[in-house]
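User: Glycosidase. Structure?
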Amino acid sequence: MTPESPVPYRLTRVGVVMTPEPGNADEAEGVLNPASGRGPDGELYLLPRLVAEGNVSRVGLARVVVEDGIPVSVEREGVVLEPDRGWERGADNAGTEDPRTTWIEALGLHVMTYVAYGPLGPRTAVAVSDDLREWRRLGPALFRYQDDLDMDLNLFHNKDTVFFPETVTAPDGSEAFAVLHRPMWDLGETKAGQGVRVPAGIEDERQSIWISYVPVASVREDLANLALWGQHRFVAGPAFPFEAVKIGGGPPPLRIPEGWLVLHHGVTGVIDSAFSQQQKVNYAAGALILDADDPSRVIARTPEPLLAPETDDERSGIVPNVVFPTAIEEIDGRHFVFYGMADSKIGVALLERTD
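Assistant: Predicted structure:
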């Protein structure tokens, strides 16, 4: 395979599994972009982003109802994370947004990355749980300084972060946990007049997918080190028309025979301020395959989207024209992808091989 070769997978819509509950104040502005996981009871759960009036987000818990091997709906079980820490709230904003959860067997824990919408804007944070219900915050993700980048990654807003489910070999040869993330290079969003700044060696200023690593040994010494990321590497930037504005990661990478399958979103249109609910964009789902031994290396990617906003639920909502994949789960031997629909509802699609 080459980076431009087809990825042998397709997505086929199955239906809508979650819509805002009438009268539920926590869901007044939508349910979307869920994380997922299996609880100790063996049941499949979604952890949806619940958006209240004023764009205040919480993370909920909902058991997935499966009929004849197909996820068809959910049963709500409350809120498991909300912006009740000072760094998750600003003077006029607050949120614990867009969770991604990965079961990491080496830790025996679900690891959540989420966006804390705090005083300076969106910032990635990490939390862990053994049951999906009680979450222990490890705090904001911190990026170790790397002199060859000539830049402190802690300066930038960062979103679309997700851990790999298995350990990998880091660039320095150590056994490590790996995490994908997407730095946002416009410092003008934090301090007016600073403009766009990129690390040394990066010529494309568009937002792209990066990878960082956490030594397993350091996490065994102190679990809090899971929020201290290093050995940062560029992975993939916009390459095809459906990704013209930016790309970002989606669900936890899925191990496949060729390497790691990473579903991602590609964006076209016009981006307003990072603090706005966008109205002039189009989000579609594509895929990358990363090398099994070196997940910073792309070995294949989709030149066309696997799923683009075409249905009424995907084209009309709080942010129209959005397909935003955030979770993959296996049900009765088949993989299903859960995705945000126009920042308002949650859909599900079947992921299948095409060869």
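The first helix runs from residue 216 to 221. The mean pLDDT is 95.
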